[in-house]
Records
---
Amino acid sequence: MSEPNSEPVPTLTPAEQPEPSLTNAILPLMRLLPPPPVGTILAPADLQDAARRGWFLAQLWAEVRLAMQMYFDPQYRISRTAQIAFPLVVALLALNYFVFSWWFPVPVFSPIAERLLDALIVVLAYRVLARELDRYRAVLDYLARISVR
């Protein structure tokens, strides 16, 4: 067994003590967590300035062009989710039209319910496409980094 260290520990006066960080003030148990692994990104990258982001319709057009490029890129394989989701979305939109316009025509309820379901189906399709476009951008970024220069 080793002998305890007999050197005196310096004490700090209240004026010399460092102020607790905001994180420790809000979450006092944060100091008990282990440190993050080496290479972990603790803060997201800075977003572009609002002035540099561009106009909404220009961004929308760029997204549409990227989606067309993604679908016709022979080196990129679209995920099964996207392969199944878009024909399913078209079928659901057609089924929604026939259910509320032909088979279940209630004067006030049907048009409202049809448009609400259309909006939900389109949002689902948008989320699937956005996720697939993020994946495609990551693949393009990876290919740009490893390409021979």
---
Amino acid sequence: MPVSPPHSSPVRFPAPVNDQWDYLLSTIWSQMLHLVITFEENLDQERLYRAFCLVIEAEPLLASRFVESPAPFWETIPDLTRNSIFSLVHTDDMGRALQGVLTTRIEPAKGPQGRISVIRGTHDCLVLTVNHAVCDAFGVKHISRLLIQAYRGLHEDPGFTLPRQLSRDRSFYPIITCFTPQEMTAAREACGEQRAVWGIPSRHGMCRCPAYRVRTIEPHLFLKLKKYSHSRGITINDLLLSSYYSALFSEIPHTPGCQYPVLTSVDLRRTLPEYDPPPVANLSVAFEVRVPAETPLEYHLLLSNVHHVMTDKKMLNAGLGAAIRLQEDFSGGFCCVKKRLREMEKRTFDEHYPKNPFFSNTGIIPDDSADFGELSTVHAFLAPPVDYPPGFGVTASTFRNRLTLVSGFCEDSVPNTLVEGILSRMEEHLVSLVVE
């Protein structure tokens, strides 16, 4: 059964440099973002499918493919099949089935850029998958919100529709141009020149076994962490980032006293709260946070160092600086950056060049992005792209005061025991800060 296209002929959308960069990365590793929602009961699969068709009509970028050219663009696909955007997986092993769904890639040059999967066992698990080249975590939550609105609306009215979103500038420019030249210079300097210093121990080569590992921090501990952070004037992100550093220092060879970087992401929407950008856009960027490796490792000193560095980075808008640098990198055009990325990939493979670890806190998943109304939602979390070696990352998200840490990695290059060890050490670090 083909999905009715939003237009009789393909529609093109400009692909700004923020899209182009993640598209290029998707040619090296999987750039899929996933929102995973677990229920106590079963979804109405036909109503869910119709609801997602309405979402695609409202947000036609999801029904597009990436077209390479000197000025790349997205182009809607005239005839989408049901199987290209929806799947139902029956299983007796929810964990194994979830791994299979999470590690199934979307090819951005073929499209479409979004899909939903229902994993059905004793209960249902819904996975909303969107290509990071189209949007960031904010956009995934927005798409899920639309899906819930359509799912609920179709229950009351079979003719329910969603308003089609107007096409707006999805680039960095509307944000960057709101700052003075002096502010942009300060932001660029605060971002700094990124330089690979260390990386997770790994076997180099192709990723043939992508995998995910998940660690959940239960509400009783998370609420203690919230109280701890409020009482000391620090953020939950400071706590999480310091716990990540402590776990990495346990696994990656380093020199005491030297500064080591972790890449961390920021949503540029927070840089300019009064600006209303299109939700389905990739406005998240990464900058480096560098802290010294202390021996012996002292958790409170590490936390203090992370807090002060992050405060400075945010005050000087390092995220804005990262966006400016990305614009500069693409000043030579898409083909030039593509060639440079291939050279970097070759250097990584031939010389075992390291890649700094990555951490992303995607924040709170609100109820309106996970609560389907007549169903009881058990849990929800965001899962990041699979980072190919020597890259390694962890993503955090929170739903109803349950914090979930997720790593997407290559099991044939990074041992599962190492990933489990890092997630465990992160939890141990957090527990140590609030133990009575």
---
Amino acid sequence: MLTIASIAGLLFIALVAGLWLLKNVRTRDLQLVGAAARVETTLTPEGTVIVNGELWLAQSTNGETIPAQSFVRIVGIQDLSLLVEACH
């Protein structure tokens, strides 16, 4: 049988682990802002881009169509989508 102290200890460990993961996700997101990405599927204005070998959902900030294989700059993150602008 688990005692109250054991249960409390397990809950504390789970809380610390959850907060650590959340911090790492936020830090990683901040590192993406300013990075370059290659458009995988044409942004019309939504599509996908490749950043550091990873596929991400993305959308152009001004609604413009950006063709596949173009390069974009990440200017922000909204929900689970990168906000990008064409590199000129």
---
Amino acid sequence: MSTLRQMPDERTPDLADRTITGTTTTDATTTDATPTDATPTDAKFKLSLNVVFPLLGGRSTWAHEHLLPVFVSLIVALMLFAVPLPWLQLPIGGKPAPPGINEAWQVFAILGIYIAFIINYYINQMSGRARSGWLQALVTVIMFWLLTTPFWDAWYDLFNVVIPGQNLEKSSNPLAVIGGNIFGTGLGEEGFKALPLIGLALMTVAFAALSRRTTGRLSALFCDLTTHFGLREPLDGIVLGAAAGSGFFIYETLVQYVPQVIDSAKGNMAFDGLVQLLARGLPQLTAHSAYTGLFGYFIGLAVLRPAMAVLLIPLGWLSAAALHGAWDATSDLVNSSLIGAPVHVVIGVLSYALLAGAIFKARDISPSFLHRCRKIRSADLAA
């Protein structure tokens, strides 16, 4: 008679260290043989409370993030039913928009933010080590706020007037148009979207240095700050880059493009605005997230290899700008939708394929930063 051993299963504590036999389940250390045709369904188990009520088990469903999309979807549905929302107002020409226009814009705003959430949630889960949703939301809000400041106006003028990107985009030379889109729109927008990421990366490097130079609780505090709020590696850069891209998309689409369409529409302005949101929003949100996520990958690499930052940062910036510029140049150079649409599809798929490749590579090279921080914190607190 041979012995069949089963590895402990962390997911099912009741069956851990137990062995399946033809008629009984016994301890894994001493057990009789089991028929070769025995299957896991033949095993007997105790009908405990956490089996009857799974939410009470050790791996509580409430502790996992897979309920978040369902919860957000329900909130979005309730908000759509509650439109018009009295606290959400669209200004047009410095004055409140008429009730009908404002109500349509509120629907677009809710749907646009919901689309942004779904994209970011997917990228976050795809990374294999999800970052805090609060940190992602903070990066998105900071990006949105930066676009409302005079700093954005000065930054825009630098890349579109001083360089000058706008004049090149209006040129009759196709190469000049492509160059204008890359060096004007591409470098300008991608560099601006990366500012929150570079700020977090610098903060991470500074706090990591302070953590090494201090001891005790102060060292543990700096380590905690880098753990929860830092950009420590390429995975962080990708996820937070996608969040920054979403903030840029939300502002650009909901504050600029959709209001312009609603204001100038002669027919059904609600329908025209919705078409604008979906036609522009779905591809552009994915594209903005892919561009900035790819740049964030290089920023995360620069944090891991500071000596190579002077090479990695420009390379990531130019890569994101080239993809962004190619997308915009297609719209400027191709008048036929039969040609332009397939080209946009190719550029969009290529951008997301590069982002996916960056995610998989980042997962391969990701250091166990959190494990190291826990070891440092435990040692410092014990000191």
